[in-house]
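Human: I would love a firmer grasp of how sequence relates to backbone shape in proteins. Could you go through the record with me and say what the backbone is doing? Here is the record:
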Amino acid sequence: MGVSTLVFPNRLTSLLRVAGLGLACIVLSPTDSKAQTWMVSTDAFMKLGVMDKFGTLGAYSAKFVVTNTTSGKAYILVKEVGGGQNGIDVVFPSEPSEPDYFKADTGEAARALPGSYVWECQVGGKKVVGGKFSFPQTANDVTTVVVDKKK
């Protein structure tokens, strides 16, 4: 017993393809442009880290101290580094919503204010690494794109 299939003539198949392509072009064509408002948000941060290169310490406590050189305010974050984990990276300033975050002695959370900073990491009460960095002055802009109606 033979199986019959519906066969369209070549001309009808070509016509359906062209019609489908035309319909897709109409549906996917761009519509009239309108003014668009874009906002930008920037967050400056610095990633700091310490590592016991040869893993000889085992577990240790790493105390990160970041000082704003303009205000002299110091922000501290203490992280525990477990055995088998040679090092740790932290982000300054960290979000105050995190369980551990950089804060001043008063409890004030650190912010990425423009200016220069010095940092150090202490292990066992001794400075093991440190350095300097700065946050630039940044601005968040609002831009409105207006369509030129002369076209």
The chain is about 15% helix and 35% strand. The chain has a mean pLDDT of 82. Residues 19 and 25 are 10 Å apart (CA to CA). The radius of gyration is 30 Å.
